[in-house]
Amino acid sequence: MKLHFRPYIRYKFFNSLFTGAVGGSVFTIYGALNPSTFSVGGIILALGLMGMAYIYHYLMEIKYFFLISLGAEMIMLLMIGFFLLFPQYQMTALIVYGAYQLSFIFGGYLVRSETHFARKARMMGWIDIAKQQGYLAGLLASWLFYKGLEYYGILAATSQVYWLHVVLIILELAIILFLLVAFRSKQRA
């Protein structure tokens, strides 16, 4: 297995586009949660990040980088699917929050691995540029999407967030495809 730079850049762009697009929606979703949930979630996140750090040395192989990346993307896909099926429940808000916390736990490892496997400063620079471009594009796309929904009379924040997630599930499937291409075994000619 090998990390292919150009496809990986595309993956990082669309992964960050997702992050930018979903950013504002979590405040609407999390509205059902008690503030103490965030304290407990923060404690679990800190412990999870520390636990991952203890096993970095076991995980610094390309196959684990791929598998944990794919696992994080699958968590997002399942979370979006759950949200689309059960959008108005407190349990859904808790599951969405938990899914993001779990992906953040893996995120520390993924950033370290990315730096390890993209060793050249120029490559890391291009990865970070793609991330910021994707994030900005996602923020702009979600703003335009919300304005478009308002134009068509969909004004309730919960409805707007629901329809955004309909688009996000398609985007997440594309992100998984980009990830698979970035880590494929052989480079095509």
Q: Spans of 5+ residues with little confidence (pLDDT < 50)?
A: none
> What is the CATH level 1 assignment?
Mainly Alpha
CATH architecture: Up-down Bundle
Radius of gyration based on Cα positions: 17 Å
CATH topology: Growth Hormone, Chain: A
Strand percentage lies at under 5%
Q: Give the tally of structural domains.
A: 1
Can you walk me through this structure?
- With 189 residues, the protein is mostly helical.
- The protein has one domain: Growth Hormone, Chain: A (Up-down Bundle).
- It is 83% helix and 0% strand.
- It contains 8 helices and no strands.
- The chain has helices spanning 5-22, 25-29, 35-54, 56-59, 62-85, 90-117, 121-151, 157-182.
- α1 (5-22) runs antiparallel to α8 and α5 (62-85) runs antiparallel to α6.
- The two termini are 16 Å apart.
How do the strands and helices of this protein lay out in sequence?
Blueprint: H1 5-22, H2 25-29, H3 35-54, H4 56-59, H5 62-85, H6 90-117, H7 121-151, H8 157-182
